[in-house]
Amino acid sequence: MVTLKILEELGLDQPSGENIRFGKLSRKEEFEKNRKKYPHVPLTFLLKIDCVRRGVSFTKEAIEKFQDPYFEHSPHIMFQWYGYDFTEPYGVPQSYYFNDGTVVGTVLSPPDKDPYIIDLDEKNNFIIRSDGEILEEVNFFKRPAYYGKKTRKNRVM
Fold it and tell me: What average pLDDT is seen over the chain?
Protein backbone atom coordinates (compact mmCIF):
# COMPACT_ATOMS: atom_id res chain seq x y z
CA MET A 1 0.00 0.00 0.00
CA VAL A 2 1.31 3.45 -0.97
CA THR A 3 1.02 6.16 1.66
CA LEU A 4 1.99 9.77 1.35
CA LYS A 5 4.47 11.11 3.87
CA ILE A 6 2.35 14.19 4.58
CA LEU A 7 -0.63 11.97 5.46
CA GLU A 8 1.56 10.02 7.87
CA GLU A 9 2.83 13.26 9.44
CA LEU A 10 -0.74 14.49 9.94
CA GLY A 11 -1.92 11.15 11.29
CA LEU A 12 -4.34 10.73 8.39
CA ASP A 13 -2.83 7.61 6.84
CA GLN A 14 -5.07 5.21 8.80
CA PRO A 15 -8.83 4.72 8.64
CA SER A 16 -10.68 7.05 10.99
CA GLY A 17 -11.91 4.19 13.15
CA GLU A 18 -15.52 3.19 13.32
CA ASN A 19 -17.44 3.52 10.13
CA ILE A 20 -20.27 6.01 10.63
CA ARG A 21 -23.10 5.78 8.15
CA PHE A 22 -23.94 9.06 6.44
CA GLY A 23 -26.75 10.78 8.31
CA LYS A 24 -26.41 8.76 11.51
CA LEU A 25 -24.88 11.76 13.29
CA SER A 26 -25.92 15.33 12.65
CA ARG A 27 -23.61 17.38 10.48
CA LYS A 28 -22.44 19.32 13.54
CA GLU A 29 -21.85 16.19 15.67
CA GLU A 30 -19.87 14.55 12.91
CA PHE A 31 -17.79 17.68 12.26
CA GLU A 32 -17.02 18.15 15.97
CA LYS A 33 -16.02 14.49 16.26
CA ASN A 34 -13.51 14.95 13.45
CA ARG A 35 -12.21 18.22 14.94
CA LYS A 36 -11.47 16.38 18.19
CA LYS A 37 -9.93 13.42 16.40
CA TYR A 38 -7.68 15.62 14.22
CA PRO A 39 -6.90 18.73 16.32
CA HIS A 40 -3.70 19.38 14.33
CA VAL A 41 -5.58 19.70 11.01
CA PRO A 42 -6.65 23.28 10.23
CA LEU A 43 -10.38 23.92 10.62
CA THR A 44 -10.69 25.10 7.01
CA PHE A 45 -9.22 21.82 5.71
CA LEU A 46 -11.82 19.83 7.64
CA LEU A 47 -14.54 22.20 6.46
CA LYS A 48 -13.37 21.85 2.85
CA ILE A 49 -13.55 18.06 3.02
CA ASP A 50 -17.03 18.16 4.52
CA CYS A 51 -18.28 20.79 2.02
CA VAL A 52 -17.22 18.56 -0.86
CA ARG A 53 -18.68 15.46 0.80
CA ARG A 54 -22.02 16.95 1.90
CA GLY A 55 -22.25 19.70 -0.68
CA VAL A 56 -23.51 23.25 -0.42
CA SER A 57 -26.72 25.05 -1.21
CA PHE A 58 -27.17 28.76 -1.84
CA THR A 59 -29.81 31.02 -0.37
CA LYS A 60 -31.75 32.93 -3.02
CA GLU A 61 -30.08 36.18 -1.93
CA ALA A 62 -26.56 34.70 -2.20
CA ILE A 63 -27.06 33.09 -5.63
CA GLU A 64 -28.61 36.30 -6.96
CA LYS A 65 -25.67 38.39 -5.71
CA PHE A 66 -23.31 35.87 -7.31
CA GLN A 67 -24.85 36.61 -10.75
CA ASP A 68 -22.90 39.89 -10.83
CA PRO A 69 -20.63 39.80 -13.94
CA TYR A 70 -17.68 40.49 -11.62
CA PHE A 71 -17.69 36.81 -10.63
CA GLU A 72 -16.65 33.85 -12.77
CA HIS A 73 -19.64 31.60 -13.53
CA SER A 74 -19.66 28.06 -14.78
CA PRO A 75 -22.46 26.63 -16.93
CA HIS A 76 -25.98 26.56 -15.59
CA ILE A 77 -25.92 22.78 -15.57
CA MET A 78 -23.57 20.96 -13.23
CA PHE A 79 -23.38 17.17 -13.19
CA GLN A 80 -23.37 16.23 -9.55
CA TRP A 81 -23.13 12.89 -7.73
CA TYR A 82 -26.69 12.94 -6.45
CA GLY A 83 -28.27 13.32 -9.88
CA TYR A 84 -29.75 16.80 -9.45
CA ASP A 85 -28.06 18.74 -12.19
CA PHE A 86 -30.12 21.80 -13.09
CA THR A 87 -29.47 25.03 -11.20
CA GLU A 88 -32.43 27.04 -12.45
CA PRO A 89 -31.50 30.10 -14.50
CA TYR A 90 -28.43 30.84 -12.38
CA GLY A 91 -24.74 30.59 -13.12
CA VAL A 92 -22.88 28.81 -10.34
CA PRO A 93 -19.27 28.96 -9.15
CA GLN A 94 -16.84 26.27 -10.23
CA SER A 95 -15.13 26.77 -6.89
CA TYR A 96 -14.78 29.17 -3.97
CA TYR A 97 -12.19 29.86 -1.30
CA PHE A 98 -11.98 30.65 2.39
CA ASN A 99 -10.05 33.62 3.80
CA ASP A 100 -6.95 31.50 4.42
CA GLY A 101 -6.82 30.63 0.69
CA THR A 102 -8.26 27.10 0.99
CA VAL A 103 -9.97 26.42 -2.36
CA VAL A 104 -13.12 24.27 -2.42
CA GLY A 105 -14.72 22.77 -5.54
CA THR A 106 -18.43 23.53 -5.63
CA VAL A 107 -20.66 20.50 -5.13
CA LEU A 108 -24.31 21.51 -5.12
CA SER A 109 -26.56 19.47 -2.92
CA PRO A 110 -30.33 19.36 -2.31
CA PRO A 111 -31.76 19.90 1.20
CA ASP A 112 -32.22 16.18 1.95
CA LYS A 113 -28.42 15.73 1.80
CA ASP A 114 -27.99 18.22 4.70
CA PRO A 115 -25.68 20.62 2.81
CA TYR A 116 -23.84 23.61 4.18
CA ILE A 117 -25.53 26.89 3.27
CA ILE A 118 -23.82 29.72 1.42
CA ASP A 119 -25.55 32.91 2.49
CA LEU A 120 -24.93 36.63 3.01
CA ASP A 121 -24.09 38.19 6.37
CA GLU A 122 -25.37 41.55 7.63
CA LYS A 123 -22.57 43.33 5.70
CA ASN A 124 -23.59 41.54 2.47
CA ASN A 125 -20.45 39.31 2.48
CA PHE A 126 -20.68 35.69 1.41
CA ILE A 127 -20.48 33.26 4.33
CA ILE A 128 -20.97 29.56 4.90
CA ARG A 129 -23.40 28.46 7.62
CA SER A 130 -24.11 25.28 9.46
CA ASP A 131 -27.24 25.08 11.61
CA GLY A 132 -27.49 28.88 11.63
CA GLU A 133 -23.89 29.34 12.83
CA ILE A 134 -21.42 31.25 10.63
CA LEU A 135 -18.38 29.03 10.04
CA GLU A 136 -16.27 30.96 7.56
CA GLU A 137 -16.32 33.80 5.06
CA VAL A 138 -16.52 32.61 1.44
CA ASN A 139 -14.92 34.29 -1.57
CA PHE A 140 -15.45 33.67 -5.27
CA PHE A 141 -13.03 34.07 -8.14
CA LYS A 142 -13.18 37.17 -10.30
CA ARG A 143 -14.17 36.68 -13.92
CA PRO A 144 -11.04 37.06 -16.08
CA ALA A 145 -11.03 40.26 -18.16
CA TYR A 146 -10.49 38.35 -21.43
CA TYR A 147 -13.75 36.35 -21.12
CA GLY A 148 -16.11 37.30 -23.93
CA LYS A 149 -13.39 38.95 -26.00
CA LYS A 150 -12.23 37.67 -29.37
CA THR A 151 -8.85 36.84 -30.86
CA ARG A 152 -7.54 38.46 -34.05
CA LYS A 153 -9.06 35.49 -35.89
CA ASN A 154 -12.44 36.32 -34.35
CA ARG A 155 -12.50 33.31 -31.99
CA VAL A 156 -14.16 33.76 -28.63
CA MET A 157 -11.69 33.41 -25.76
Answer: 81
